[in-house]
Design goal:
- There is one protein chain.
- By secondary structure, the protein is of the alpha+beta class.
- The chain has a domain of 69 residues: Beta Barrel (OB fold (Dihydrolipoamide Acetyltransferase, E2P)), CATH 2.40.50.
- It is built from one helix and five strands; from the N terminus they run αβββββ.
- A five-stranded mixed β-barrel has the order 1-2-3-5-4.
Length: 114
């Protein structure tokens, strides 16, 4: 029996040290911080089909918009800033960035295609 008591004592001691060590390591660990990395918005290509500077809306026939997982189509967008429409006209080929904010598709950047 003496041998069994020793084995139990050693096992208990080893198990206690393991638990204590793992708890100690957790107590000393720094809390994890989450860094949100936004991918760079890729520009999509399109053609302006309609333009309404007063309401800040434009209709674009566009190719795939990858960041929105959207296939090519023609649709109405709202611009985030009406100043983006300055100097544009129907028929212009453009490169643009769009986002979906609360179910509303916004154009956040526009440039004339070269």
């Amino acid at each position: 029996m003496n041998r069994i008591h020793r084995l139990l004592a050693i096992s208990t001691l080893a198990l206690g040290v393991t638990w204590h060590g793992s708890g100690f390591a957790q107590a000393e660990a720094e809390p994890a911080t989450t860094i949100e990395v936004q991918p760079a918005a890729s520009l999509s290509e399109g053609e302006i089909r309609r333009l309404d500077p007063e309401t800040g809306k434009l209709t674009i026939r566009h190719g795939e918009i990858r960041n929105l997982d959207m296939p090519p189509m023609t649709m109405v967008f709202t611009v985030r800033d009406k100043a983006l429409l300055s100097g544009l006209k129907v028929g212009d080929r453009i490169r643009f960035a769009a986002s979906n904010e609360g179910g509303k598709y916004l154009v956040t950047h526009i440039q004339l295609a070269k």
